[in-house]
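Each lists sequence, tokenised fold; shown next:
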Amino acid sequence: MENTNNQSLSLEDITRIGEKFYTEELKESLEKDNTGQYVVIDVEQKKYKVNENRLVAVEEARKEFGNKLFYIIQIGSIQNSNINFSAKKYAWNI
């Protein structure tokens, strides 16, 4: 299946935009009730889906937002704060 959405955005752009949107707009509110779950963000529409299962969250986002690359991050830190949290960030085309 051909990716017809966000073709002009590189993986770096999606990661940068997604990280900024998550940090500035979503992090505080999502961490209250969703720590450990995954948020899948459509960086162009500034819309997102949250689910405890990363693949389910991606499928929900794909159904609503289309076949495109998403920014994915696990909400909060379920491990010690000194763990490199960036290892849990993804831009996937699924």
The first strand starts at residue 38 and ends at 42. The chain has one domain: 11-93.
